[in-house]
Fold:
Amino acid sequence: MNAPTRTGVPFSFGRLLVVAQNTFLEAVRQKLFALLLLLAIGLGASAQLFREFNFGSSELKFIADFGFGAMIFFGSTLTIAATAQLFFSEIENRTALTILAKPIWRTEFIFGKFLGVFAVVGVFCALTTLLLAGLLFARESALMEAHPEAFEHGRIIHYADVFVAGGLQWLKFGVLAAFTLLVASYSNTNLFTVIMGFFVLVVCHLQYLARDAYAQVASVPLRLLVRLLGYVFPNFQVFNVADQVGMGAGLNHLMALRIGGYGLAYIAIIGVLAVYSFRNREI
Structure:
């Protein structure tokens, strides 16, 4: 059944924020959010226990990589699962039909759902980034006391960069949430949406390989197809500036801004596609 048209009813950011707020509260109540948050915090905190197995790399670099690795793994799982679950709970419980029977646009519904999930993932990223920064600061302070000669030029970790790297991971999860919502807008099952969400995650992380390979393809049509796919799916590797944390050199903040714009552009485009798809869907 299609929702009635919204002729004469102006678009409202207020209604959009109400949907986002309800989505956020529903997501926080889910046990999955608490479980993944506790696992990420536990793994991040345990980085110091495994620092003896860093195979010669910098101890601080190892802790940073371990912490951001936990954030990426559990954050991706949370993003895909929460987006699919929160969308299909509205469909399966028929609450979406009730909501859309009111003077609310489908655009408001879709972007409200996105902002709700984005806020939940933002809380997840903020807490794990704060924990990681605290661990790095405590361990670096201990190392400075034990080996002052290695820190004669001051601290190695640029803590502003830790938060910049965490923010870019949050933005990457936003792109992933938008893709998952796009799939959910035409999918009939939660399971299919989750599977496709993880498929998109893998493709986006390996996208840079396609770009490197398309120039070596002999067939011109195939080369253009591979190149087109390289633009359809964003390159998630560009968000992994966390690799530079703990190396001593600071991040290029101008490059970080460009990466942020890159992520926001994909969120906007994918969000518009999700709205278009959902407008043609029967509920």
DSSP finds nine helices and no strands in the chain.
